[in-house]
Amino acid sequence: MVDIIEIKDVVKSYKLYDKPLDRLKEAISPTHKMYHKEFIALNGISFNVEKGDALGILGKNGSGKSTLLKLITGVLSPSSGSIQVKGKISAILELGAGFNPEYSGKENVYLNGLMMGFTREEIDNKMNNIIEFADIGEFIEQPVKIYSSGMFARLAFAVSINVEPEILIVDEALAVGDVRFQTKCIDKMKELKSKGTTILFVSHATEQVKRFCNKAVWLKDGVVQASGESSEIADLYEDFMKYNTEHTVNTDISTKLDLPEISQSADFVKPSNPETVASITKVKLNKNSFRTFDELEVEVEYEVYDDLIDDLLLGVAIYTPDRKYIFGPNTHLEKIDIPNRLGRHRMKYIISSLPLLSGTFCIDVGLFNNEGIVCLHYKENVVDFNITNKYISEGLVYMKHRWEVLE
């Protein structure tokens, strides 16, 4: 596919002054004294958008989303780096932006159309479609200064998506519309996408990004935290917002992950403390980024320091980061005998098909005896992993099910 937007090493910084007068003082200072603080809104971001992509842009308020869109549309210029845009842009950045409050809705349609490079005749040919889509009745003839935010959104959308843009940029404007209007807008955007229009879509509603976009970029503090398939990036972003966890998508899902060892002793050495009868020395996963129904392998290395420990059992438990218990079997309950004599041993715990949906999950590992009553060694949150998916379902776990039409 052809790249229609190319963003390379873009930085956008602003000078912040405590007082308006400080700007003048800095300009005329014979010693070139600085009176400003530099704020970096975007810090060296790079990514490409292919023609026909629907790209979701995710991030908290202040992450740089609106600055990025203004750079792409040419409203702002980058402090450094380069942006190449190949195509006519139609953008809804702020409600009412580009509208003259004294003009009527119809007059503002002409004004916006002319600013986009259309002739009056071309706008006349599109006017009926725009008025029909906006569906604001007689208010189309009234000054827009009396419009509600919903009317602004309707008219702005109507103009932007009925001028056949090559690139459509939508920044949170759907949030002010009612359900019927949102449905109409999404249907029209789908139609444009099917015709090859490239769409940049900013929304705090991650479900909209999952369902509408095929790719996504997550901005955090002015840098690209992650980019890739929309559902996966939305899952990572949701997980960060919920637990403040930061993962990246593992593009090669067969990659092995060797996590830090709990004990890095090269040789088996009995501890000097006689109260220590066993310990967990290493835990690792087969990878750190999964999809639902992938196989999870937890390899546990442990050491036994007595000649024999009766009823030794191993448990592996899965938790969420806020310590909600998901699942925790152990070898005693499942009648599995594990090595229990003096020495170093290894076990592997396998879930052949993970039923969990998206999120971050933690692994606890413990050694016990006496049917789990006595804890010999326990490691909490020893490793973690994340699950991201194409949009397949909602909730915590995937359950086998079926649908039946009754009438």
Summarize the structure.
With 407 residues, this protein is α/β, with parallel strands linked by helices. The protein contains 8 helices and 17 strands.
What does this structure look like?
The chain has 407 residues and is an alpha/beta fold. The chain folds into two domains: 3-243, Rossmann fold; 278-387, abc- transporter (atp binding component) like domain (Coagulation Factor XIII, Chain A, domain 1), CATH 2.70.50.60. The chain is 23% helix and 34% strand. The protein has helices at residues 20-28, 65-73, 105-115, 120-134, 149-161, 179-194, 206-212, 230-243; strands at residues 3-17, 36-50, 54-58, 80-85, 89-92, 167-171, 198-202, 215-220, 223-229, 278-285, 289-290, 296-308, 313-319, 325-327, 341-351, 359-369, 374-387. α4 (120-134) packs across α5 and α7 (206-212) runs antiparallel to α8 (230-243). The longest helix has 16 residues, at 179-194.
Report on the biggest sheet.
6 strands, mixed
Mean pLDDT: 85
The rounded Rg comes to 29 Å
User: What fold name stands as the CATH topology of the largest domain?
Assistant: Rossmann fold
CATH superfamily of the largest domain: P-loop containing nucleotide triphosphate hydrolases
Structural class by helix and strand composition: alpha/beta
In helices, the fraction of residues equals: 10-25%
Tell me the total number of β-strands: 17
- Taken from the alpha-carbon principal axes, the silhouette is elongated
Number of helices: 8
> What's the arrangement of strands in the largest beta sheet?
5-6-7-3-8-9
CATH architecture of the largest domain: 3-Layer(aba) Sandwich
Q: Supply the CATH class of the largest domain.
A: Alpha Beta
Strand and helix order: EHEEHEEHHHEHEHEEHEEEEEEEE
The stretches of 5 or more residues where confidence is low (pLDDT under 50) are: 249-265
Strand residue percentage: 25-35%
Terminal Cα separation, in Å?
Answer: 46 Å
Count of the separate structural domains? 2
